[in-house]
Design brief:
single chain; Rna Polymerase Sigma Factor, Chain: A; 2 domains; 8 helices; 70% helix
Length: 155
């Protein structure tokens, strides 16, 4: 099976999961790219289907947890959403205080939405190590957040 046939099979599988051609196209492409990023070469139909299925499940879980609303649809004034300066956490300083590995896994998990198992594959670490790094990073951020706020500038 050549690359085009494999990608088309992946699209058909994604379409069977989503029922939406545009979503299926995105899912198939993401699966294809992830395989090439992780393995550098085509791994076969089973690997592609597994990757697509995992991406679909991750997307479903994310959509179920978070309802996204366009900012334009919210009836808020800027002052309604602005946090008072005294309550802002110096997030950048807190993130810099983390070890590089802790920042990496926290980003992949919290921002990109990868599971611990996926992060373990991407970073070539054990799942237990990834879970430990995520937990340690969260604890450090929580400890720093409770003790650090940005003070009003003098003057």
């Amino acid at each position: 099976m050549n690359d085009l046939d494999l990608l088309q099979a992946g699209y058909r599988f994604a379409l069977s999961l989503t029922g939406n051609p545009a979503e299926a196209d995105d899912l198939a492409q993401q699966g294809w790219l992830r395989l090439h990023k992780c393995y550098g070469a085509r791994k076969g139909r089973g690997a592609l289907f597994t990757t697509i299925r995992r991406l679909f499940i991750d997307r479903y879980r994310r959509d179920r947890r978070v309802e996204l609303v366009a900012i334009e649809d919210l009836d808020l004034e800027p002052e309604d959403i602005a946090m008072p300066r005294t309550e802002r956490i110096d997030l950048e300083r807190l993130l810099v205080s983390l070890r590089e590995k802790e920042r990496e896994v926290l980003f992949l998990h919290a921002v990109e939405g990868y599971t611990a198992a996926e992060i373990a594959t991407l970073t070539e670490q054990s799942r237990g190590t990834v879970l430990s790094l995520i937990q340690r990073a969260r604890r450090k951020l929580a400890a720093g957040a409770t003790s650090t706020t940005v003070a009003e500038p003098a003057g």
